[in-house]
Each structure stands twice: as C-alpha cells, then as structure tokens.
Write a structure and sequence with these properties.
globular; 1 helix; mainly beta
C-alpha cells in the first residue's frame, strides 16, 4: 500500500503550469512538515515535494500561497533523470489526490477546511462567514 497524509505549510508560492498537448494543469509546491527532534525544544522539519494535477492543481495555484497551511493526501512516487552534466539524479515526490486548505482564505474570510481534491469540477467560490449557510 502506498498512501501518505501530510499537514504542513508551503515554503513558497505554488508553481502552476499546463501540459503542452491538452493543457492539463500541474501544480508543484514544497511542504514544510514538522517532525519531532531528538533535542528538546529544537523544531525540525522535512521539506516534501508535492505534485498535483487537474482541477485540484488549478485551485492550488489560485487559492494558496507561501505560508498557507494545507493537508495533502496521496502517494509517493520515485523517479530518476540524467542532468546536463550526465549525472543521474533521483527524485521523490508526493502525487496528491487531495489538498485541503486549512487556513482562512484572504478572499472574503472563508473558514478553513476547503477540499479541492477527488474530482471536484466546479470553481471555488468563497462564502462570506456572515451569510446563512444552507445546512
């Protein structure tokens, strides 16, 4: 089984690009995920490369930025390539199926926990916290 769930903050704004053929959105970002340190009081973090495709990638590119707190669910994928100097380089990425925004968004005070994974096809529309909710 290859399943990973992470919560962390973006180290910089996501890089949103589109494939040449069918213009599929691809977002890449690095997540700083805290971990326990052997030394008391010493915060430590792992920096994990995340890749997201499709509508989820579009929403990531539009609505989160450096410092945003997100939860990511997906799988680990490894790969390799040869760089310009002829050296073989190895990569490890998390291919995200879901990205949940855990911070309040700056676009109208929407509360956190927004989910943009798992086949959502409609654009995100922030809801004002003062509006009546339909439930």
């Amino acid at each position: 089984m290859n399943k990973v769930v992470l919560i962390g903050r973006l180290t910089k704004d996501p890089d949103l690009r589109y494939t040449a053929g069918n213009q599929t959105p691809i977002a890449r970002f690095t997540l700083a995920v805290g971990r326990f340190s052997k030394k008391e009081g010493q915060p430590d973090a792992d920096f994990i490369s995340i890749v997201v495709f499709g509508k989820t990638a579009d929403n990531v590119g539009k609505y989160i930025k450096k410092g945003s707190l997100v939860a990511v669910s997906g799988r680990i994928q490894t790969g390799s390539y040869t760089d310009q100097e002829g050296k073989k380089r190895y990569t490890t990425d998390v291919i995200a199926d879901e990205v949940k925004f855990l911070d309040k968004l700056n676009t109208g005070g929407t509360s956190g926990g927004s989910d943009f994974g798992g086949g959502y096809t409609e654009d995100f529309h922030p809801v004002d916290e003062n509006d009546d909710l339909p439930f």
